[in-house]
């Protein structure tokens, strides 16, 4: 029989908890990175469309896209 001591079990449990915390933090960083990439991409896309609406002289499209851009920046606090 391979019985482990109380100390070994406590160490193993502590390491398991540490790995779970590290995994959670890593997942959080990945989520933040993906959110930043998506936000940056969406902002660039909207700015390009806004510039195009200005070039066309399309005031309605400009106003609509500008409102979307403002909402996007409010939502992400940027």
From TrEMBL:
One Pfam family from the record: IDEAL
SMART domains noted in UniProt: IDEAL
Superkingdom per UniProt: Bacteria
Domain IDEAL: 33-69
UniProt-listed InterPro entries: IDEAL_dom, Virus_scaffolding_prot_C
Protein name, per record: IDEAL domain-containing protein
The organism of origin for this protein: Cytobacillus dafuensis
Taxonomic lineage from the root: Bacteria, Bacillati, Bacillota, Bacilli, Bacillales
């Amino acid at each position: 029989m391979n019985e482990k001591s109380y100390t070994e079990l406590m160490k193993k449990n502590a390491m398991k908890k540490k790995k779970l915390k590290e995994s959670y933090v890593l997942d959080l960083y990945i989520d933040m990175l993906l959110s930043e990439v998506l936000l940056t991409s969406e902002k660039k896309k909207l700015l390009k469309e806004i510039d195009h609406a200005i070039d066309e002289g399309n005031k309605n499209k400009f106003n609509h896209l500008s409102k979307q851009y403002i909402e996007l920046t409010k939502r992400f606090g940027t």
